Amino acid sequence: MTNDKDIARSVKMKPIEEIAAKLGMGPECLELHGKHIAKILPCEAPKRERPGRLVMVTAATPGKSGEGKTTTAIGLADALTAAGKKAAAAIREPSLGPVFGMKGGATGGGRAQVMPADAINLHFTGDIHAVSAAHNLLAAMIDNQLYFQGCDLLPGPSVTWKRVLDMNDRALRKIVVGLGGVTNEVPRETGFDIATASEVMAILCLARDLPDLKARLGRICLGFTRDGKPIFASDVRAQGAMAALLVEALKPNLVQTLEGTPAFIHGGPFANIAHGTSSVIATRVALDAAEIVVTETGFASDLGAEKFFDIVVRTGLVPPPDACVLVATLQSLKLQAGVKAADTAKEDPGAVETGFDNVRKHAENLRKFGVPFVVALNRHPADAKSEIEVFASLCRADKMRFALSDVFALGGAGGSDLAREVLAAADGDPRDFRLLYPDEMPLAQKIETIASEIYGASNTVFKGRSRKKLEMYEKAGFGKLPICVAKTQYSLSDDPKLLNRPKDFTLTVTDVSLSAGAGFVVVVCGDIMTMPGLPKVPAAEHVDVTDDGEIIGVS
């Protein structure tokens, strides 16, 4: 069977200047990073009279191997290009943690890939490294403040700012710093998060421009004084140096698909522990230049899509999507129906029908926001005709637009039906976008609204000091911020063992934290970790370099 790398080798990449020219961007708009990667500079590129239309790709609850949202988004962009549209993709960049952990690469698959895949999956243009450096600079300045001024400004135990690393490393989740005597530091407990969970990453992806980035960095809350007053990064005068480290990272990255469609890949916040979408800057640049832009949100509608609507669109910097795509796979539906992973390749139409309840709930979630959508069945070679027919008939019975997507095997040609349905939905289906909750709603009630309306929970429980912390945030003036839930991606609930469409369950809030610079409150539910660990057999074991320097095993 031909693998992704063999397919990529069979395609000759075009110079990135040629890709940019498709969007009306000349050399003055490009900062070249080799022949096939460029950062986009502020320039006088011609803009469309009206911004392009936006298509957002989300999914049903994924299994361990995912639903193929990125592959679908890339293939759809190619299919729209083949249909004569001036299309572009705007997606997240991969994190080294998943690349070397369980997931592997995140540049699509089969004939729906972005290139050069190895460069994108590994260091790319260094944006995530810049985020790590800026984040850790602030951590160093906080500890420096503690060393020279003691706890006058920052009571040591109240410091909430950890350090970050773009790698899965469970040993760093909880650590003690400052050991070795008074010449080293003030000893205290802290830990590491993965870089893509950093508030700095969220800020990079939500900032309008450089001045907004700098202002948001200054609003990062480091902790609270004993009388409940917030302390900000601006109080330790860190925002200027942090912004200096992020100047280059703020520029969107432009690459290409296998079929030569422009693809912006910029920013990479996780959706199970952050807000899960690429940068608003990249999306705005794409919408100014292209007729239609395909973006992708992390995991399923309960995580990525809800946050895209309630956090990203709420900023007013990105418009509500003209249409959405809800990706599903038959394998995942069988898993949701209780079929063991080893048996999902066996033909089982009954399990598909049972697992379809999960798709129904995600469809309901999209309807709550008033956006038109298409259900895309991401085809797998093992899919039986009887199972596909059951899936299609269930979509028709629920009056949902449906398209069979075969972009993995066929590229843009395999997404022609999906492109046609997406354009029909964007052109003709009713659209009445609305947010899930108003700014003025109390923070705890916002959480309860997400839990009941999006997850289907019957109750929400606040553990430990979580409710008191929410009250403190409101008292400090942060009550109007939206909510960013961190929970498992493997269930609509906060328990990965509750499959399909769980009912009569309780959402358990274990902790909350303030991301004032990004502009949301993070709500931790269940046992979710902000620093993942490697699996028993990490993908890193299969990565190598040949004697002539070719990287192998990143997929």
Explain this structure.
It is a single chain. The chain folds into three domains: 54-124 and 253-428, P-loop containing nucleotide triphosphate hydrolases (Rossmann fold, 3-Layer(aba) Sandwich); 127-246, Domain 2, N(10)-formyltetrahydrofolate synthetase (2-Layer Sandwich), CATH 3.30.1510.10; 443-525, Formyltetrahydrofolate synthetase, domain 3. With 555 residues, the protein is of the alpha/beta class. The mean pLDDT is 93.
Query: Roughly how much helix do the residues carry, as a percent range?
Result: 25-40%
Radius of gyration: 23 Å
Strand content: 15-25%
Number of helices: 18
- Principal-axes shape call: globular
Indicate the CATH topology of the largest domain: Rossmann fold
Give the termini distance in whole angstroms. 14 Å
Relevant CATH superfamily of the largest domain: P-loop containing nucleotide triphosphate hydrolases
Q: How many DSSP E strands?
A: 24
Q: What is the name of the CATH architecture of the largest domain? A: 3-Layer(aba) Sandwich
Look at the structure and give the CATH class of the largest domain.
Alpha Beta
Extract low-pLDDT stretches: none
User: What is the total domain count?
Assistant: 3
Q: How is the main sheet built?
A: 12 strands, mixed
* Secondary structural class: alpha/beta
